[in-house]
């Protein structure tokens, strides 16, 4: 439809006609001149074509985080049906689910991101970047308004793109609500120091609220707090002796609560002690602890490795792993060792035994690269041929993506292929992929020269859906394996700890397997708290093997490698062997050591090229018995013979045993922090402030070489440099955000001396915060973009962008110029107007 913006200019037409009639010499009625006059008048009237939009793209951002989960589960489907029912024929509806990350919804696709945070800002930016810019677009956020990321600057992008943002705020759950605030307590204390834990409690109704206090998950106190005027307080006096960081948690336990997610608050308390040692051992009365304590060292003995977490590395300055297998150590604790040694300057000693080094599953574990010895499999040192059956879960859960296009199945395949490469030519292998049925991938085959070919077959396994029928898979693997006459037969079951079905008569089957001298281990993807974890633990125990739990699928190749090496090599030699002085002990102690004539056995390892070797075995291998080196800022050592328990009798009878352990451990310990320095940490919300304080009279000004601050997220995070601000002559300070649900560790490098700290984490979960300012900011952003807060979701379709007008003035002007040129040319050519 055409309309004219300035129709008054049409009055020129009769005036021009009259002018042409009265003044004939103007020749205005000649065709080209008449056309020019008409186009001139039309251009002045500005004719426009009315354009009506074809339809609206409505991007609906659905909050799937924990704080909004209940409301979305109750009303989300109804809201979506309402939007679809009111959708016009030319409109398009696009759903984006978001929590820690946005995901474009696809039918049948599971929502994978963590639901412990609400990244609304990220979701808004994702929708703006993904929309079709050629179509009118509008955003609608279905959220509780409690975003855990920043979206303050998004309104500029919305306005620039012409995209309004409507919001539909999820109302709070009806009923009483109680919550606990941030715990107030010191972050660093001395051993034995008393301290106070204090936290405010808020509620919609006055009365007594029960609470409990936990330390590292164990209840240490409890009681009731009285709320007056909607507020109360919890107080508890506590005391810690053992070095390390312990996580306290206060939980309120109201009888009724509409938002239970805000009922807990946590706080890390770190016990600092110079010269302390963490001894993780298989022996309750470990003689190592006796020897070290006799020299004045503080030793914390851990015989239950399941208690360990990265916080245990905060106070001790050295860790000793005494014949404890890798699969009993929590994955986070092992992963945290790299930062503890290389960056925080801690020490690490591993001692020998049947459950240590390669025999204990430490090959390609997180501590492997820290040790001064290598545990690789050398075929010339193999004692027995091995036949291995690998039974692999290929159920639907294995198809989930881990990193981009890589799936859990891809990583498991890579792990199994890596296991084949670590076996020898004389070894045999069979592989089954299992869902509701076992599928033979590789029949029992002697590897020979075909390791790469077999690995290629394994890498083609794909997840096909369904669950894993455990019994059928184990039965198929054993039927193939029992055909082998190898000296050692072993089954590796890889399965999802949350989805292991149909165990059948597995106990009878495992009794048959072990009675034939074979063994079975389990690599479980998940955690010990998963639904089927107990089943997998029982399978490993009855199979006389190990179980590895790991929720991080990226670690699967390393777990397969650890298990293969621990099975496939006779890594512990239990015959007495002479001890030969290799000369390296002088780097640790000026006093020469009168070594024992023999030790009763040792773990066969190989010294790394840069390592210093103090003693070697006097057999054909000349293998290292005592080895040490510098690793980053820290030091590590390996004593490959047992120092406690079985096969340690000769060493313990040696008069130099205690001095040897004392001297080696003292060498591992880093020096004390510079005098006159202190480190303080504090949280404001989820922002951590770190202050390094120093006395210039004792330390100098650090003006030439300022202290360096490194932080790492989680157990295996990469160290990142953080820029300080010099607040005063005696203070450096830095503030960094800690993402929701995460914790960090760090270290201050002050003149070559390392001062470690952490783990540290925000005490309260920002996902469950009730920040009115965040809601106000969201409303202001919506208004600034041209949107609004709506109660009836059908209103989301009502603000279709207005009709737009396309002006023809430019086209008419171009036409007028062309006709004018043509008329001038014709007049000059013929000598009279055209």
3D architecture notes:
By secondary structure, the chain is of the alpha/beta class. The strands form twelve sheets. It has a nine-stranded mixed β-sheet with strand order 17-16-18-19-38-37-36-32-33. α4 (120-130) runs parallel beside α5 (154-161). The longest helix is centred in the C-terminal third of the chain and has 22 residues, at 809-830.
DSSP helix fraction: 25-40%
Number of helices: 18
Specify Rg, calculated over alpha carbons: 37 Å
Estimate the strand proportion: 25-35%
Q: Tell me, what's the shape?
A: elongated
Strand count, sense and closure of the main sheet? 9 strands, mixed
Count of strand segments: 47
As laid out across the biggest beta sheet, the strand order is 17-16-18-19-38-37-36-32-33
pLDDT < 50 stretches: none
Quaternary structure of the protein = single chain
Mean pLDDT across all amino acids: 86
How far apart lie the N and C ends? 34 Å
Please outline the helices and strands.
Elements lengths: L1 E3 L7 H11 L8 H15 L1 E5 L5 E7 L2 H20 L6 E7 L3 E3 L15 H11 L6 E7 L10 H8 L3 E5 L8 E3 L7 E2 L4 E10 L3 E9 L2 E10 L3 E9 L4 E9 L11 E8 L4 E6 L5 H8 L3 E5 L15 E5 L8 H12 L4 E5 L21 E2 L11 E8 L7 E3 L2 E2 H15 L5 E7 L3 E9 L4 H8 L9 E2 H12 L6 E9 L3 E2 L4 H10 L3 E7 L7 H10 L4 E4 L5 H13 L3 E2 L3 E5 L16 E2 L2 E2 L2 E2 L4 E6 L6 E8 L2 E6 L9 H5 L3 H12 L8 E8 L2 E8 L1 H4 L8 E6 L6 E3 L2 E4 L2 E7 L6 E7 L2 E8 L11 H14 L18 E4 L1 H22 L4
Parallel strand pairs: 3-4, 3-6, 6-7, 9-15, 16-17, 16-18, 18-19, 19-38, 21-24, 21-27, 26-28, 27-29, 29-30
Antiparallel strand pairs: 1-2, 2-47, 4-5, 8-10, 10-13, 11-12, 11-14, 14-15, 20-35, 22-23, 24-25, 31-34, 32-33, 32-36, 36-37, 37-38, 39-40, 40-44, 41-42, 41-45, 43-44, 45-46
Helix pairs in contact: 2-18, 4-5, 5-17, 8-9, 8-13
